[in-house]
Amino acid sequence: MSKSLPKQIGELFAHFQDLTDTVKLNIIKRTHENKNNKLLSFFSSIGDSYFKKYFEIKKDSKPTKKT
What are the tens digits of pLDDT across the range 3-58? Predict the structure, then answer.
């Protein structure tokens, strides 16, 4: 049985969100490696803190399943 259209669209959005999170995380890591620019390093540290907390929250939350 194929998945319903709303379920497919919801899963597509979830994959897109995961992709954008991965891209942002990689940009922050690369910026953090460049210690020459203090302003970029500052915002990179903010991004690191954000993603650490975000992944902690994401890991602790479990999706609800409809029956």
Answer: 899 989 998 998 898 889 888 888 877 776 666 777 877 888 888 888 888 888 87
Instruction: Tell me how far apart the alpha carbons of residues 32 and 3 are, in angstroms, rounded to a whole number.
Output: 41
CB 24 within 8 A of CB 47: yes
Question: What distance in Å separates the CA atoms of residue 13 and residue 21, rounded to the nearest whole number?
Answer: 12
The span from the CA of 39 to the CA of 34, in Å, is 11
- Which of 18, 51, 47 lies closest to 32, judged by CA? 47
